[in-house]
């Protein structure tokens, strides 16, 4: 999905130090490390969509981060009495952990180069459609507001399936490619918001979430 939207740039191009810091963050929790391994997640595949910093106009910050995953049976529930032909569905616990982990990684990225501890104040997750083993998905974390003490984030889990949504790849690249590159270069906030909303509308939203984090400065 993300390769078809060139305005999403690799996180390593925007924040090179994120790969090291993100690895430290995920490896600090055995639970998080196991979950991301089960979902075939690679930190370097994360991408960002940028806007100008409200405090420093010459600096770009990540409005949103995109995390690609593949849902595996290991991350799904296998209820008693499940038939062999049934496809396992991702558990609510795994989904909540995924929203927690990805939005927390977004906070980590926004705080760099500082390394500030942050804890959850509130997290809510809503499953809209079954998330099945074998699904390719992209979780979009959006930084709705970030202050000195609190960060407010929202998340959408999108189903990456061209045939289902009828997305014309060639058309998308032709009409959005140069525009998207210019958005990242110039930090066009209105354009970036438009791009983000368009991407969400074009794909089936499997789940949504909200996360409030406290920064322990």
UniProtKB/TrEMBL annotation:
* Coiled-coil ranges (or none): none
Domain Thioesterase: from-to ranges: 92-162
Query: Domain of life, per the record?
Result: Eukaryota
Family matches, as InterPro entries: HotDog_dom_sf, Thioestr_dom
* Name this protein carries in UniProt: Thioesterase superfamily protein
